[in-house]
């Protein structure tokens, strides 16, 4: 089995995030009797004595013979203390023999482990990972701090001191070829060594219980600090390959990221798991465009004296969403439109004008006064985005013409005539032959204003009005003066028929009875001349004849003033 460690250079503090996220469950596992602590919690208990000896925490307690290794070394577990003191040593060795691969896989994924054995019987133990061993019997009366700036000597429990004595401070020594010595004895043999494996940390120890050590409470505080460091410290103390990327989530369209190394780090070989991430093994450059979307553990490995030292960083490559702003739309003036965006988990429409809520995929465009062009920005859960465009075009409203106002005789009828649309609705409808055609017959009993609403091929609508004036009887309307001076205004005299009927002819006479003008064409008018000569300003006699809707002859005689 290769020695794959997370750190290498002594006493270089790690800054930043490597360890995977674990729930903060802590386990104390030992044999059934209470030795060596004189108390024995039942499985699952966290009793006051545990907090006194190990430090305050949410401890789970169980036996080597009853614990479920898949739970104690599972995804909810952060820290495990395997007790090997006194008569616990052989049960611990038996438990390791069965579960060593499971335990080291858990550590590699980020778990924290304290294996400490101070046997009172038996012999040396092989603790796996090639050459890690515990030697027994190998007694020592004193312990000496080696890594003086390590957190276990700094707190949070104090005083700790740097030297401990007593009745056999150590019952055994440990050999960890790729570890770092924390405590040694008077002979220079190792009593506690830290090793980082994968993304986890192990402290191997051969120390006895703290109740035998002097001065008190230094050794007890040291043990509490070991537990606190492993259970609560986010990062290992030793490091040589620490690196991180500027961000932990990248979109495939972003510039390729490069790693940033910590002070004193020794860049090694980059790799990534699972497969799918395209990474330069020397520079650590990640090719975002060609990598598959996913969550990756990027590792950097340095090999020194046969030991591989590993640091890791979690990096997410996110596929860009595919924004869809929906089809272009055509709406009538004054109408609303509903946008139809999709492709993301959150959205933003720009510009936000005329929108009820620019963050909704189906935002409503409220009566835009002009054509509007929108851009949809669709974001995925990782903040990656894509854009798409949509246009809202306005149809012009149809120009509806309800026709000229009309005069009709009570009891008669007239025809309305609307244009400019393909369908029509007239109101009021009570006096119409059919209110849903362009030219209904109207027979109102009183003067009525009719409103016609026309709808064109695009579904857009327009309106217009017409007035039908209702009079008691038919009559001929005639102006009493005109001005034939060529200015385009009132240059000809032309009578009109009031009500249903028509003009048949009219005559113009001078004051002396001379016939100056006659026409049987009611569309023609007198221009104020006779025999090609302009007539003088004055008063003239007019005789007008017509037929009403009933065929009766209507005659009207009057005077007309010619003005220049």
Fold and architecture overview:
- With 564 residues, the chain is mainly β.
- The protein has five domains: 11-232, Rossmann fold (3-Layer(aba) Sandwich); 243-317, Immunoglobulin-like (Sandwich), CATH 2.60.40; 329-395, Immunoglobulin-like (Sandwich), CATH 2.60.40.10; 406-471, Immunoglobulins (Immunoglobulin-like, Sandwich), CATH 2.60.40.10; 476-562, Immunoglobulin-like, CATH 2.60.40.
- It has four helices and 41 strands.
- The strands form eleven sheets. Strands 3-2-4-5-13-12-11-8-9-14 form a ten-stranded mixed beta sheet, sandwiched between helices.
- The longest helix has 20 residues, at 89-108.
Overall average pLDDT: 88
Give the biggest beta sheet: 10 strands, mixed
- In angstroms, what is the radius of gyration? 51 Å
Structural class: mainly beta
CATH fold call of the largest domain? Rossmann fold
Q: Strand sequence of the main sheet, in spatial order? A: 3-2-4-5-13-12-11-8-9-14
CATH superfamily of the largest domain: Class I glutamine amidotransferase (GATase) domain
Question: Any idea what the CATH architecture of the largest domain is?
Answer: 3-Layer(aba) Sandwich
Name the shape in a single word: rod-shaped
Strand content: 35-45%
Q: Classify the helix fraction into a percent range.
A: under 10%
Annotation, overall tally of beta strands: 41
CATH class of the largest domain: Alpha Beta
Number of helical segments? 4
What is the CA-CA span between the terminal residues?
123 Å
Question: Domains counted in the coordinates: how many?
Answer: 5
Q: Any low-confidence stretches, pLDDT <50, length ≥5?
A: 1-23
């Amino acid at each position: 089995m290769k020695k794959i460690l997370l750190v290498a250079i002594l006493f270089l503090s790690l800054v930043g995030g490597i360890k995977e996220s674990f729930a903060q469950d802590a386990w104390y596992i030992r044999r059934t009797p209470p030795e060596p602590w004189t108390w024995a919690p039942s499985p699952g208990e966290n009793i006051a004595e545990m907090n006194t000896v190990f430090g305050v925490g949410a401890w789970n307690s169980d036996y080597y013979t009853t614990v479920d290794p898949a739970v104690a070394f599972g995804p909810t577990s952060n820290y495990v203390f395997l007790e090997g003191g006194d008569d616990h040593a052989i049960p611990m060795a038996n438990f390791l023999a069965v579960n060593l691969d499971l335990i080291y896989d858990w550590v590699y994924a980020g778990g924290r482990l304290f294996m400490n054995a101070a046997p009172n019987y038996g012999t040396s133990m092989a603790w796996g990972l090639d050459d890690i061993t515990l030697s027994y019997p190998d007694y020592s009366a004193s312990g000496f701090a080696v890594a003086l700036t390590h957190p276990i000597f700094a707190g949070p429990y104090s005083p700790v001191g740097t030297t401990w004595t007593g009745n056999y401070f150590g019952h055994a020594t440990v050999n960890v070829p790729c570890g770092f010595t924390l405590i040694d004895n008077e002979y220079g043999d190792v009593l506690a060594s830290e090793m980082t494996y994968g993304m986890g940390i192990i402290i191997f120890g051969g120390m006895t219980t703290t109740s035998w050590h002097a001065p008190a409470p230094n050794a007890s505080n040291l043990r509490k600090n070991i537990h606190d460091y492993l259970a609560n410290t986010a990062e290992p103390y030793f490091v040589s390959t620490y690196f991180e990327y500027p961000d932990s989530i990248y979109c495939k369209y972003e510039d390729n990221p490069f790693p940033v190394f910590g002070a004193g780090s020794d860049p090694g070989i980059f790799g990534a798991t699972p497969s799918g991430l395209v990474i330069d093994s020397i520079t650590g450059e990640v090719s975002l465009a060609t990598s598959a979307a996913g969550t990756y553990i990027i590792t950097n490995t340095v090999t020194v004296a046969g030991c591989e030292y590993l640091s890791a960083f979690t990096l997410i490559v996110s596929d860009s969403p595919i924004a869809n702003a929906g089809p272009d739309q055509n709406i009538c003036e004054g109408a609303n439109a509903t946008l139809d965006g999709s492709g993301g988990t959150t959205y933003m429409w720009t510009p936000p004008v005329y929108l009820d809520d620019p963050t909704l995929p189906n935002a409503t465009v409220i009566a835009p006064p002009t054509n509007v062009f929108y851009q949809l920005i669709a974001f995925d859960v990782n903040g990656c985005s894509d854009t798409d465009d949509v246009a809202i075009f306005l149809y012009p409203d149809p120009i509806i013409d309800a026709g000229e106002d009309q005069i009709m005789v009570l009891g008669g009828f007239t025809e309305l005539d609307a244009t400019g649309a393909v369908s029509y609705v007239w109101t009021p409808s009570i006096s119409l032959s059919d209110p849903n055609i362009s030219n209904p017959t109207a027979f109102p009993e009183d003067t009525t204003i009719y409103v016609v609403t026309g709808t064109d091929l695009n579904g857009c609508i327009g309106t217009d009005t017409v007035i039908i004036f209702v009079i008691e009887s038919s009559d001929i309307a005639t102006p009493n003066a005109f001005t034939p001076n060529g200015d385009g205004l009132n240059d000809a005299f032309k009578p009109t028929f009031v009500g249903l009927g028509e003009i048949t002819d009219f005559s113009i006479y001078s004051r002396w009875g001379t016939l100056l003008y006659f026409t049987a064409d009611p569309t023609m008018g007198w221009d104020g001349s006779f025999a090609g000569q302009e007539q003088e300003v004055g008063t003239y006699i007019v005789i007008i004849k017509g037929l009403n809707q009933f065929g009766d002859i209507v005659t009207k005689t009057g005077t007309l003033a010619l003005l220049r």
